[in-house]
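Form 7-S
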Amino acid sequence: MKFLDIGEVAAASGLTASALRHYEAAGLISAVSRHGLRRQFPPEVLLQLKLIAMGKQAGFSLAEIAGMFGRDGVPDVPRAALHARADAIDRQIRELTALRDTLRHVAECPAPSHLECPTFRRLVDVAGRRGGRPRSRRSKPAAVRAGG
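Output:
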């Protein structure tokens, strides 16, 4: 089996060598040997790095991701944690969708001043009650669909 040195892994993954050393220190990846001072990794490390990147993108911490790898490096994913994270992402999507709809309404509102627009004022009131987060809805409010 041909091993990849740290430079090859860095080039193939887009990560820096220092990030790879950090991941190794955190127990996320393991070098199998050294060639001189350069760490050598099995080719499977590239798949592990993709899984780490996916976990980070989903909002998991490195410690949580490390817990998802078994002792032999094979993923041991807690399904309940994935469901909980997916639910959190769904909530974030709803909040961002509501924010996007608010921004579009503000951009397209025909009122001479946004403060004169009842829909805008209602959206601001709702966002203020929610600590700055607009209320998420499955569809646009009737006043928004009707143009103001």
